[in-house]
Amino acid sequence: xxxxxxxxxxxxxxxxxxxxxxxxxxxxxxxxxxxxxxxxxxxxxxxxxxxxxxxxxxxxxxxxxxxxxxxxxxxxxxxxxxxxxxxxxxxxxxxxxxxxxxxxxxxxxxxxxxxxxxxxxxxxxxxxxxxxxxxxxxxxxxxxxxxxxxxxxxxxxxxxxxxxxxxxxxxxxxxxxxxxxxxxxxxxxxxxxxxxxxxxxxxxxxxxxxxxxxxxxxxxxxxxxxxxxxxxxxxxxxxxxxxxxxxxxxxxxxxxxxxxxxxxxxxxxxxxxxxxxxxxxxxxxxxxxxxxxxxxxxxxxxxxxxxxxxxxxxxxxxxxxxxxxx
Length: 326
Hints:
- The chain is mostly helical.
- The protein has one domain (4-212, 226-325).
- It has helices spanning 11-22, 25-29, 58-82, 92-100, 112-129, 137-153, 161-171, 176-199, 203-208, 231-248, 254-272, 289-302, 306-325.
- α3 (58-82) runs antiparallel to α4 and α7 runs antiparallel to α8.
- The model has no long low-confidence stretch (mean pLDDT 86).
- The chain crosses the membrane at residues 12-31, 62-80, 92-123, 143-167, 179-199, 228-246, 258-276, 282-300, 307-325.
- This is Beta-carotene 15,15'-monooxygenase.
């Protein structure tokens, strides 16, 4: 299967669509009786009313989630290929994105982080471009605004502000205008939100938006390890990908090295951002799928022993299906 997706054969689009449905068989067969979809954070509902959460049936919820993941996979695939992060253009990024988006049952439903992945993929594209532009100020401003829109949908998205400065450290020499441009873009959106709250004599509620940022990072987490056994094959592939990347690191273009460093930081930031939402759910971690899928695709793009990497992928898919049904 991996060999099939190592090229840009248009037939792979049909196979990807079928694969997306296949990876969701568990939830289609065992359809939940009710699924609530909260599209926006509570503070955003004060000025934006979208009565979507109560109008979608469980089947419609899962259907739209499937379509969204497929579209995101195609967009993601195009961006990774355009920036030449893998050995050659292929459909492996889309394949691994769909696989990563199917790891847990909560990944298979409509959720705010799933919607935010459109913005995250867009941000990835912009970060990968900033080394190629003479002046990154407007790009950083745009990224700041995108992060603000993501924060309206799902508050933990705000932690991606850290990526503004991490990416500048990796890609650009110091320019104080670029360093503040992204933050100004972020504040621009929330300035208008603050004005709206003020006009409605509710400015005290606006201040409460930022309270989650003062949360302490949890010192211990209640983890049901059986629920995360599916991550064992994923971790094995990531370790193999890291070893592969290390072996090729100094033979790669400088831009490729910096891109993978940036994606690693994005992967970590996406995971740790859960602390800003005390009642976070497992679907939060779908934010880590785009940067993580690049690393997985890198391994399968460079692996040499076909019997091994094909078997490893089959084990991964079977493990996902087993834990989804169980």
